[in-house]
Every structure is written in structure tokens, then in C-alpha cells.
Amino acid sequence: MSSAQSFQQAPHKLLVIPGPVECSDSILYANASPSVSHVSPAFISVFGDCLRMLRKVLYAEKTGQPFMIAGSGTLGWDQTAANLVEPGEECLVLNHGYFGDSFADCLETYGAKVTVLKAAIGGIVDEKELTKALKEKKFKLVTITHVDTSTGVLAPAARYAELIHQASPDTLIALDAVCAAGSEEIRFDDWGIDVVVTAPQKGLGVPPGLSLVMASKKALGVLNARKAPVSSYYVSWRRWLPIMEAYEAGQPKYFATPPVQLVTALNVGLKQILDDSPSLQDRFQIHKDVSKYVKDELEKMGCGFVPLSRDHSANGMTAARYPQGIKAADVLGPLAERDIVVAGGLHKDIASEYFRVGHMGVTAVDKSRGDVDKILKNVKEVLDKARAKQA
Amino acid sequence: MSSAQSFQQAPHKLLVIPGPVECSDSILYANASPSVSHVSPAFISVFGDCLRMLRKVLYAEKTGQPFMIAGSGTLGWDQTAANLVEPGEECLVLNHGYFGDSFADCLETYGAKVTVLKAAIGGIVDEKELTKALKEKKFKLVTITHVDTSTGVLAPAARYAELIHQASPDTLIALDAVCAAGSEEIRFDDWGIDVVVTAPQKGLGVPPGLSLVMASKKALGVLNARKAPVSSYYVSWRRWLPIMEAYEAGQPKYFATPPVQLVTALNVGLKQILDDSPSLQDRFQIHKDVSKYVKDELEKMGCGFVPLSRDHSANGMTAARYPQGIKAADVLGPLAERDIVVAGGLHKDIASEYFRVGHMGVTAVDKSRGDVDKILKNVKEVLDKARAKQA
Fold it and tell me: Rounded to whole angstroms, what are the CA distances from A262 to A255, B39, B261?
């Protein structure tokens, strides 16, 4: 029999895109758990613990109701739109790239009237523009992409939330934290966030396949008070809330079969984040330190950055512009040949001008792996080689 | 390093509920694959092969367009309802238990007007009633639960499809095969089915977390011709079809991050079904033989069955009524103490009167495991013990 202690994942290229990311052996071993009944006492406890730990990771223990549903991170947008927005209601999207566009698309699909405040590429939405927009219209919901994976921009979520609460206390705030949870601090209760949308395969370091959502008491109150029926079956919180409550209370209840292995893997991943050293607070500091180190080193190699300011740069990923004269083909393929997988650009206007490196999960936190130095050493070598070829 | 050859899952209770089911070691090992990029050439090929193999397993190579999306099996109902039914359109649900009720709920959520033909518990919808209903109204869609997991009833799907085609050739036919694919023969092309909804964790023997759907050319034509916009974002085939086509063509394309490990596990599972002995045809025969054996033996022990006829009993599971004087508590707990997990009743009117045994995947097909005899031996012993206590 293989054991959690003896299991080692197969040799593979180092995966350092902005998600999915490298998983620890113990998380992958948990993903290979024997099948269990989704209503067995043992699994109910594993599931319930995931919900409790999600509250801790997001500092949501006062007001947060977690939902954990089989699906991609994208499904969290549907959960937000289908449950909280009624047809014809006004929503405001603070857009820092591709994922802002998509959240707006999703809201419109559910009948919302969407106003978009679009930052310049690499920039952030100006506070004054936000305040102005909030004065002009009453919005049911404002969405913030915490880290837009397409640009690596980190939105000042706490500050935006403060401004929204000041100008329009009833307005709900949804934070798309798919590329932020686990690598950026999120203070759900303190910031007064109403929905956090996330997924396991980025800062949480677990395989993809779950939509993880935290909803505030206020958000659930808005759901209760809505007039139009929820227009989706699978993402209806009215169907899922009793399930989540039952699992947390240690009781079986069925709506749709949860991905039992993946939930078991998430349980191990969340435990590693909460119980192992470093502490949650130290973890966020490590992410900041690693991010600074990566960005400083890339800068020395002649790279620029998509985010216009270090203050608004993600700590779990870096969107680096190629140095003068270097093309995508000089970097992406040569790195893959060296068994290092980074991602190309995603923002359509500048896709060929930059590449994206993820430094989330074990890659950033488990120094003994040496991932970060391996990435930087190889990026330097392929850049040097490309320059030598040109000379 | 652990290898596919050396990996063995942890010791565990034998899981023989009607899904999730036992997985082979090699499938679980695939579920512990290192993370890969969802747009890497290697993963694109794994994903594309899954789609091609799904067509083969469902005999859908002429007209089938597969969709593979992170989610529970339930999400397939949303896919069907959101893409194919416009608000106010008439649907007919052939109801053989709990899952028929739920499919009807889902259709109504998306605005359908639903007529339900409800069979007596354990019975099937009468052919004459179906023909009569088809004459009375023009239905956009008829749904058939192939195996209703709550009752173990196997619907005569081919015959129903024939009657529907005769009476109403334009009507779409959706087959809920969550508890059927892999253990019951489904002839998508030949029967003229328009949607098969399924999931990996039952007859396909793979961990849960994917919604697997096969749609006909006719169904995609209906989608193209629809007037109302698709009212859901995540389950919109308009968003997923280009993704599925790209993956099959070996090209990267992004809408939402697929669960890369689970897709890798499904790939191994489908290969085992298609390439290993027994052949697909032999596999269905084995399921019939195992099912007959299980039912014959349980009958000898004094059990009855929820399905009123052997002809309409599922081959991948058995819904067995407790013998006279025996209660759920005499069977479920004592079996669990013997490390055998079966399921209680699910149909609300008779939940306390029966139990459900799954004999899908490796439990039925891999005789070397001895699962079936282990189940039967232990059921006999707990029944004997309960009787002895009464005497």
C-alpha cells in the first residue's frame, strides 16, 4: 500500500503559471483517496471542516457563510449574479483586465444593467471615479477583481470597499479572489465584503474543480428579500444553503454529489495553510517578500511590468514585460524545454508583450523546493541566450 | 517516487452505494497527477481523447457533441434546460422516482411548463400514457431518467425514444444517464437521443466532479435557432462549444479552468472501459450477469425489490426491500461495521423499507476483487443475525 508519507508525485515540468499551480505530495495523495460515501460521517466531517477553515483563511468568522460546490472558479460569478441580482438591477464592475470583462458578461447574462469603470492597462480604477459613479446611480452590487490574472494588477480592495460603504451602504460588494485567496490578505468581516469568489487551484495550492464562495449575512438577507425567483437550478443558494448548514452541523443532506476526493484534498490544503508554519499572517508576508524578490530580479534582467505601480501589483504572480528586443518565442518555448512552464500574455491588447509567472502555494512558501530561484535562473539564461543570438 | 504500477490506495470500507463507487488504483493515481497547464499540448490531448472516448462509450460517433465541464452530474440538467428550453415551452418528464422530480424542478426553474407522467413506485411509465400525452400537447423536450437511483428502475429508453420519434419527430429527447452510462447500454445515435447527461462517479468508475453531456446535432440546431438568450453564463453551450471543438482539434482555448487531475483520471477510466478486456459489449453483459446474480441471491435471502419487474431493473444497482421483520438498522449499521457501505432508501414514500447496493465499475467488472461475493456473504450474515435475535 502507498501511504501519505511515502507518496511522491511523478516527475514533471515545474508549473508556474498563475494557476493551476504546483501541489504538495500530500495534497495530491489526498486527491487519490479511496472513494467514500458523500453522506458518510467521516466525509461529512471533512466537508464541514473545509467550510470552517475557509472562514478562517478569509477572516470571515463573524459574517461569512461558505459555499463549496463542484465547478470551476467561474461558477462563482454565476452564484453571485443568479442569487443576488434581479433582472434590470444596476451593477458596477471595477475592471482591471480580462476577468473584469468576464464578470460583467456574466452579470449581463442574468439580466443586470452593468456600468464598467475600466482602468488603463496596468492601472487601477481611480478613487474619484468610483465615488463619482456611486453618486450618479444606486448600485445593487459592485464587483472588484482582487487580482486580475490577465494583468497581475492587485486592486486596493479594502479601500474600494471603504468608499463604497461610505457612499452607498446598501450596495453589495463582490470580490473575485480566484487569483488572490491564499496569497493576498482578505479581511472579509473587517472590510465588509459580501461575496468572495475563489477556487482551490491558485493561492490555496489544491487541484481545480471547486467553486468556493463566501457570502455575508447581508448577502443572504438580500437573497431572502428578492422578488424574482433565482433563475438557475444548480447555483441556487436556496438549494445549497441547507446542504452547507447540514454538513457543518455534522448531518447528511443531499442536493448534488460533491467531488469527494477533491474536497478531501482541499481539506489537507487548508490544514497546511492554517496549522503548519508559517502562520496565515506570516504566509502573506512571505508572499510579499517572494513577490518583491521576483520582481526585483526580473527588473535587473531588463523586464518591465504590466502593473503600473508596485503598490498595485499582485503578490502571487508577476506579469512581466519582455525586455527590449525580446519576443515571446524567445522565452516561453525555451523555458518549457527547460521544464519550466510559465504563461504568455492574456490581455488582448498587449498579449505578445509580456509573460506571466505564478508564485503561489508551495512554490512561494516551501523554500526547500527552490522553485523561485530555479525560475529566475532559467529566465535569466534564456534572456541572455536570446540577446547573444541578436548580437 | 510513486509510480502507476506501485501505487495502491489506502485500506478503506468497501463502497457499494449507487455512486460514488470504488475506483481502480490506476484511476486514483491519475487523480494524483502533478498539476499541468490546462492549455498545455499534453493536457489538450488528454482532454480531447476524453471527448472522443465519451462518444464511443455512448455510441454517439455519428451525431454526438460531448461537453465535459467541472461540476456535479446535476449540472447536466441545467445544461439541458438552459440551452434547449425557452421560457414557456412545454416539457414532458417521465418520472420513475426522486431524480425525475428533480429534473422537473430544474426545467421549471428555467421557465419550462412541465407535464409529469409519474409511474407507480417501482413501475415504469406506460407506453399508452406516453403516446396519449404526446398527442395532447406538442413538447419541446421529453426527459427520461434511464436509471432512477432512488428506485433502481431501468427505463425502456430505446422504446420510449421510438414512440416519441413516431408521435412527435421534432421533440428533443434527454436521457439522464448519471446512474446508467458505463453499466447500461446507451445507443445515442441509433436511438436518436438528443442529450445524454452523465457523470464519472458511477458506471464509469471515476471520482466525481465532472458534468458529462452528449448533445446531438439536432440539439445544437435547436440551440442555434432559439430566440431567447441563454439565461445562464457557466452552462451556456455557446461559450463551451468553441472550447470543446478547440480541445478536440488539439488547440488551446480558455473559458473556465478544467479540473486537470480529474480529466486525467477520467481519461484513464475511459481507456480501461474501451481498451481493456472485457470489450464494451462484454462489459454490458457482465453487468447483466452480475445484476442477475445479486438479485437472485438477495431473493434467496428473503429480499424483495423496489422495481416491480426484473425487465425494468437496473443492472448497475439493486434496490432491495428488507425481508419481513427486518429493519434498516439491522442491515445498514451492521454492514458498515463490517466495512461494507451500502445506501439506505431514497424515495421518500418508502425510504425505510429498502436498501440500495451499487454494483458498478470495478466492483462488477473486476472479478478478482471478489466484491460481489463479499457483499452477498455479509448481507446474508447480518440478515441471519437479525433473524436469530428475533427468534
Answer: 17, 21, 10
**Residue ranges of E strands in B204-312:** 210-216, 304-305
d(CA B75, nearest CA chain A) in Å: 6
Strand pairing partners for A114? Answer: A91
Angle among Cα B18, B20, B25 to the nearest 5 degrees reads 125
DSSP 8-state symbol, B353 = G
> Is the dihedral angle over the CA atoms A366, A369, A370, A374 positive or is it negative?
negative
Q: Tell me: the pLDDT tens digits for A280-304?
A: 999 999 999 999 999 999 999 999 9
Q: E-assigned strands of A164-272?
A: 172-176, 195-198, 210-216
Region A14-20+280-390: CATH code? 3.90.1150.10
* β-bridge mates for residue A14, sequence order: A340
For residue A126, pLDDT over 80 is answered with yes
pLDDT at position A111: 97
Residues of B in contact with A40 (CB under 8 A): 341
- Give me the average pLDDT of each 10-residue run along chain B (391 residues): 84 97 98 97 97 98 98 98 98 96 97 98 98 98 98 98 98 98 98 98 98 98 96 98 98 96 98 89 96 98 98 98 97 98 96 98 96 98 95 79
Residues B32, A15: C-beta atoms closer than 8 Å: no
Contact B64, B120 (CB under 8 A): no
Half-sphere exposure of A175 (CA within 13 A, CB side): 30
Residues 202 to 241 of B: which have CB under 8 A from any A CB?
207-209, 229-236
Question: Angle formed by the axes of helices A217-225 and A75-84, to 10°?
Answer: 50
Contact between B80 and B141 (Cβ < 8 Å): yes
| Measured distance CA(A344)–CA(A333) in Å, rounded | 10
pLDDT in tens, A354-375: 999 999 999 999 999 999 999 9
Contact A167, A36 (CB under 8 A): no
Confidence of residue A1 (pLDDT cuts 50, 70, 90): low
Reduced to 3 states, what is the DSSP secondary structure of residue B69?
strand
Q: Residue A259 and residue B9: Cβ atoms within 8 Å?
A: no
At B1 the pLDDT is: 58
CATH class entry, domain A26-275: alpha beta
Per DSSP, the residues of A16-62 read -SSSS----HHHHHHHTPPP--TTSHHHHHHHHHHHHHHHHHTT-TT
- A200 to chain B, any CB pair closer than 8 A? The answer is no
Domain boundaries, chain A: 14-20+280-390, 26-275
Q: What is the ipTM of this complex?
A: 0.97
DSSP assigned state of B227 = S
Has A356 been labeled as part of a binding site? yes
- Cβ atoms of B222 and B84 closer than 8 Å: yes
Closest to B303 in 3D by CA, of B183, B152, B98, B154: B152
Residue A187: pLDDT band with limits 50, 70, 90 = very high
In this model, does residue A8 exceed pLDDT 90? yes
Cβ–Cβ < 8 Å for B318, B305: yes
A227-286 pLDDT, tens digit each: 999 999 999 999 999 999 999 999 999 999 999 999 999 999 999 999 987 889 999 999
Most A CBs within 10 A among B15, B233, B363, hence the mutation to make, goes to: B233
Q: Please give the pLDDT value at position A289.
A: 98
| Contact present, B94 and B114 (Cβ < 8 Å) | no
Nearest CA to CA, how far is A387 from chain B (Å)?
A: 27
Return the CATH superfamily for domain B14-20+278-390.
Answer: Aspartate Aminotransferase, domain 1 (3.90.1150.10)
For residue B200, cis peptide bond before it (omega within 30 degrees of 0): no
